[in-house]
């Protein structure tokens, strides 16, 4: 188990490290106070990472030195750092939560989250799940229906590269489950009920799937997934 903890406040960083080590005593845990301290990954001449460094869990503060003018998740990816991201932040509002999830993080956790809930959420993310506090998810439901529909409409107008099956990054286990359900024609509500997810979470997973597959819509995503062999395992696993 390999874990990265990134927070610029030493006291809170130490508390996060302690929580992580209590949950995974044998884990290899790295701690940084700035994204400028990210582990070096060998790069190509054009500056792009030649290799990726994968963690089983990344616990990340949302406002980090080294991410000025960008978001910290994008900085991680550009540096070749891969792995599920749980953002732990002092910004406790639905706008920040939506921004965090849209950038590809698997979890949004305010720093006021109780330690027990934090530990459970981090374990869920490490196992391929996602987490948003219920009270934040309720606020998100009033924001995302319109905003996600607008974004998807804008994306549908953009040309999509025909590199069939070329994933921009691997699907998580949860995204794979959602994809299998999409292939059956299930609605967001049906997927949420089957996978015990809130409908807004299903929408965000679907959005990430479309982005990773370079797809215009759900039908296009399923087609690309089939061509890439991502649906080769029986769909019965998703519906049983």
UniProtKB/TrEMBL annotation:
Listed GO MF terms: DNA binding
Domain of life of the native organism: Bacteria
Keyword flag Thylakoid: no
Keywords tagged on the record: DNA-binding, Phosphoprotein, Plasmid
UniProt domain HTH luxR-type: residue ranges: 164-229
CDD domains the record matches: LuxR_C_like (cd06170), REC_NarL-like (cd17535)
Entry-annotated residues carrying 4-aspartylphosphate: 61
BP GO terms, sorted: phosphorelay signal transduction system; regulation of DNA-templated transcription
Domain Response regulatory: 2-126
Keyword check for Metal-binding: no
Protein name stated in the entry: DNA-binding response regulator
């Amino acid at each position: 188990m390999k874990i990265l903890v990134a927070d610029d406040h030493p006291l809170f960083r130490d508390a996060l490290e302690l929580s992580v080590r209590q949950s995974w005593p044998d884990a290899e845990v790295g701690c940084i106070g700035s994204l400028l301290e990210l582990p070096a990954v060998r790069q190509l001449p054009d500056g792009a990472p030649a290799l990726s460094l994968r963690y089983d869990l990344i616990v990340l503060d949302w406002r980090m030195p080294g991410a000025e003018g960008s978001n910290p998740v994008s900085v991680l990816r550009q540096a070749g750092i891969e792995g599920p991201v749980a953002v732990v932040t002092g910004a406790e509002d639905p706008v920040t939560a939506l921004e965090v999830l849209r950038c590809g993080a698997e979890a949004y956790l305010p720093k006021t989250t109780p330690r027990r809930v934090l530990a459970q959420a981090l374990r869920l993310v490490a196992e391929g799940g996602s987490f948003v506090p219920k009270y934040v998810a309720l606020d998100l439901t009033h924001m995302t229906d319109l905003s996600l529909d607008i974004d998807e409409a804008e994306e549908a107008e953009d040309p999509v590269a025909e590199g069939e099956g070329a994933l921009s990054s691997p699907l998580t286990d949860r995204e794979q489950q959602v994809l299998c359900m999409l292939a059956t024609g299930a609605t967001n509500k049906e997927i949420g009920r089957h996978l015990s997810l809130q409908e807004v979470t299903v929408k965000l997973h679907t959005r990430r799937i479309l982005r990773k597959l370079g797809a215009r819509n759900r039908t296009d995503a399923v087609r690309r997934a089939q061509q890439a062999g991502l649906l080769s395992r029986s769909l019965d696993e998703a519906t049983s």
